[in-house]
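Re: duplicated header lines in exported structure tokens

Our pipeline writes sequence and tokens for each protein into one text file. With two proteins the header for the second block appears twice in some exports. Here is an export where it did not happen, for reference. First protein block:
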Amino acid sequence: MRRTLCSIWAALAVAVGLSAAPAVARAETPEVIASVAVTRDGERWTVDYDLALGRPAFAFVVSALSREGRRPWRPGRWTVTTPGVEIARIGNYDVLKSTDGRDLPRRIRILMRPLGGDLEAEYAPSLVFTDGAVALFSEQFDLIPLEAAEAARGLPTDLNGVELPGGLTQVTWRDRAGPVLFRGERQVSVTATDAETYVLFGRADLTQGKAIATVVDPNLPVWLRDELEGFTPQVMDYYAAHVGPRRGERPTVMVSWSGPTDNRSSMAGSVLPNLIVIDFEGEGILDASPEVLARARWFLGHEAAHFWLGSQGLRYEVARDAWITEGGADLMAVRALSAMDPAYDAREELQREVDDCIDLTTGKSMVTAGERGELRTNYACGAVFWLVMEAVAEKDVFGVLADLIADNPDGVLTRQEWLDHLDLVSNDMSLSYDLDRLLDHGAADPAILIGSLFRRAGVDFQMVAGQPELN
């Protein structure tokens, strides 16, 4: 199983940890272990499972905690109506289980209430539009069979590269009010496995542009709509010119608006093959001040960068290496905006990355940041690492990325491969040694360590009151 998550929440980051090997059902199971019918009938949403296996429990693949509050999200959205069946949190997973430990009924009904809101290190289960349209993440219904509910405690948090016995979950989506939108096409109903997309219910319009297609909440502030439809194709053209053509077909950008919430400025997004999904929220982004405009463009630049670094481009091997894609996408956005807008303050953004990396690695490792809920770490420290790589390679991030893509035709860039490339272009293995230390252990004083890295790599900076300040 491979799941590469490319996602960002305003200035927050995405990271997950890795735990023990899974304890799951045996491999004698059929290819399709469950069929699911997801149906919208007016305000009523039902999720009907038809299980092909006799098991006492199944873990849900999408079980990350909500970003706000770090709580399981299903209790407030899913209600099991079948007697003797419940959803419980066991270890790091939501588990569909029988209350008596016996095999589950083969047919189970769940009432669902789609809500907005982001998850840690996972795609949001639903995007809710102000006109009543709803987009559902396809993989939230996928199951992992268990021999016992408690076996969920042995499932690794990161499922990248893990071959889980079991099989596929086949999902059918239908809306009694009309066709659903699936991969850019309206269909009466859709049945798929491993779709890795969002399925849109409702009448939201798909606008076909030359470079991208958009599905935009009708109440999204007009300036944001204009930036989506104007700036996103421009920044993608910039990446293509400096890295090479992106893979895949013309992408769709799907944008919801959670309203002008007081004292809030939120830009939440993630990328799937040929699809960017975004949710904007807060009074702070109602108007396009210069600061908000720069932040929105940086955000769109980061998400678009994942078509080259992450998602359909060069991706990480395991989720604890998300610093490769997230830090790289941050730096790609900064470099692109600097070239496209002379008034953009790249130094301010990059200094924020340095400062945050120092704060988040003081006595703490990067690889365990997800377990602590410190999801910013991969972005900030990843950008710092890429700054070091740029300096020693004497190329910008785009040139380095083009070389790495050429050197890794399988589309996977491991931590060791990234560090090996750093050794190659720097001829100084002490750099990768210190980066290894930050990754695995953190540092008692990361400011001194990062300053030393910058000095040896040739990054333009100075030490001010014991802190590295970029020039």
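Second protein block, exported in the same file:
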Amino acid sequence: MKYWFEDQLQSLLQSDDKDEFIRGIIKAVESLGFEYYAYGLRVSIPITNPKYEFYNNYPAAWKKVYQQEGYLEQDPTVRHGLRTIQPVVWEELMFDESKAFWEDAKSHGLSHGWAQSARLDASSIGMLTLARSGETLTSKELSSKTPYLLWLNQLVQMGFQRLLLPKLQHNYKASLTEKEIEVIKWCAEGKTSDEIGIILNTSKRTVNFHTANIIKKLNVSNKTAAAIRAVQLGFIS
């Protein structure tokens, strides 16, 4: 298993072709004893209208039902992944409030699974899910495979980040000067223009000039929105 994963590491990290990358994921998933993989990416720029990208090899019938029933909003594994990067194993208890979803999933051959999310940057989160229809995931199997599952998740997250994020974030690329970054950092702290001027040893007029430029560059309507966007784009860490 160790040597196989070393090969997978090189293969997945070096692939710049999305189809080739996905074929590598499927091969890895099957080698770990699963039938299906699913990857979802959410980019929350703008916050009120996040973008989603989904890739999986689920049965076509399940994909159709999932979309028609709006299961994305009900899926407890997705809710878990948005809250924490802690891995989760599918268990009956976690589907108590989503019984219709759970019964539909099992009827389409998705009975046992494992999932983990990862923060890709301040505005993006991705989640990898592995699933199968056959045997239950035992504690013994999890004990032996968890290091490889975690490793695979990291490879998949890194690969999709490289292949997808530039396209999804293209319209929100911006460049701020060092002085503008200083100003927006203090805006994010709730400081007024007068206060920022004192901190940076400059005039209120100059601070307002920089703030106006920041708002224009980040394509937002006010300095509060600019501070949020600056965090999302990594100008404020």
